[in-house]
Structures are given as structure tokens and as C-alpha cells.
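Researcher: Following up on the earlier apo prediction. This time include the ligand. It's adenosine-5'-triphosphate, with the SMILES given after the sequence.
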Amino acid sequence: MSTANTPKIRMRGVKKAFGPKRVLDGVDLDVAAGQGMVILGGSGSGKSVTIKCILGLIEPDEGVIEIDGVDVLKLPRRERESLGDRIGMLFQNGALFDSLPVWENVCFKLLAQNRITRAQARDKAVEVLAQVGLAETVGDLSPSELSGGMQKRVALARAIAAQPDIIFFDEPTTGLDPIMGAVIDGLIVDCVRRLGATAVSITHDMASARRIGETAAMIHKGRIVWTGPAGNLGHSGNAMVDQFANGEREGPIQMELRR
Ligand SMILES: Nc1ncnc2c1ncn2[C@@H]1O[C@H](COP(=O)(O)OP(=O)(O)OP(=O)(O)O)[C@@H](O)[C@H]1O
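Model: Understood. Below is the ligand-bound prediction.
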């Protein structure tokens, strides 16, 4: 049963292998309701697989994943799918559809599920675009006509349009200049706060991690090896985390491909 102390997301012993390759080897992670959690880890360490397991896009081999205290892996398919209505996602590359105008992209999920008429969707898109600093006229453009920073704003608008209570951000500032990255981070923080949502982000950008995360977790060799305040990244006292956050070649993390 869910109580005030129940984590929004709770993972215990989550394992996932692809063929002989074990990617997740017993992930334990708690994300408190309303918290901003950043997941760090080397390339290929399993950050995206972790998020996809929570989203239900990948089925773990073992373990427990709870949302609001409910074991989602045991839910019937239909109930599991309806959980998706409460979850927003900003994909790494934005994943916008160039064949649709911006406003339809923003309200894509609401339209696809017939939760809203096209006229309502247009109004809703204008309202959400304004929240990410975009003018009404942008709604009629194709995503291909927008700069990278504007595309990220549209992707953010799409992630929040259905007012989810959990939002995942996969490398939200990748490919942006540092100032635009900071602007997008600011918008993310504002939007998440306005919704009162729980946010889980993957990023390799430490400045971004400190801005959008309250808490950080580091994944290494398929397990969460450290959790602590995002503000401590780089001087956490954990040699592995500090090597990673400071981008040092020497340290406990040996990356065969980089030698
Ligand atoms: N559907 C899949 N089938 C087979 N292997 C997969 C699949 N999805 C992920 N993997 C493998 O799992 C490992 C972890 O992938 P994942 O995408 O989670 O890494 P990541 O930590 O997000 O990395 P990056 O920072 O580079 O995006 C990789 O070796 C990847 O090749």
C-alpha cells in the first residue's frame, strides 16, 4: 500500500541480459515523489535500459519495479499500458515527427488516445508551447524548420502536455551549446516543479546534472554503486563517482576501450 514514505519509483534486484551479455545485474534504486534524480554512468553501462525497464519497453529477467508501491511487472498488460498515461518522456534525439506540425507533435499522445479533439489539442499545444517559451506561430511549423534548441523545447512541451506525474529525460542537453543547455535545464526544472512531477534524467553533462538533479545515482557494472546529492558530484568522496564527474582518465573505473 502506498503511504507518504512510499517511493514514487522503487527498483529491487532488477536484472537484464541480452544473450550472454548481462547489462543490469541487480539494480536497486529509490526515487522519492517530487524528486529530481539524475542517473550517471559510462557509455553502455545500462542507463537507458534501466529507464526502459521502468517504462515497460524492456521486460527485466528478474527483480521488482514498483510505482507508487504497485509492482508494475505483475500488472495485467492493459493496466500496465495505462500507467504510461502518467509518464512523460523526452527522448535523446527529440524524436519529433517531421511529417506533423509542431502542435500535433506536442499533443501527439492525447490525440492518439482520442483524449482530446483536434481543436482542443491546438489550444492545448499553444498553452504548453508558451510554457517552454515558444510563440503560437511555432505550432504551425514543421520540426525540421526549427533550430536544435527549439526542437528540444518542443520535445519538452510534448513530454509535459499530458501532465504526467513522472517524466524521464534522456540526455536533454546533448547537442546544444552551453547557454542553450542551461536554458533548457531551467525550463525542465520550471516545468517539473509546476507539475509537481518526479523527474529521472540521464546525462553526461555534469553542469546539467547539478542543475536538474537533487539526487544523483551512479550505475557501474549493472548496479547502482552510489547515490547522493547531485551538488556533491565531483567532490562526493566516492572515488568512482568523482573520477567520472571530473572526467579523469586515472581512477578506479577502467574502461578497456579507452586505454
Ligand atoms: N534491445 C537490446 N538488445 C541488445 N542489446 C541491448 C539492447 N538494448 C541495450 N543493449 C545493450 O545494453 C548495453 C547498455 O545499453 P544502454 O543503452 O542502457 O547504455 P547507456 O548507459 O544508456 O549508454 P549511453 O550513455 O552510451 O547512451 C549496451 O551494451 C547495449 O548494446
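Model: Residues 18, 23, 41, 43-49 surround adenosine-5'-triphosphate (CB under 6 Å).
Researcher: Noted. I'll compare it with the apo version next.
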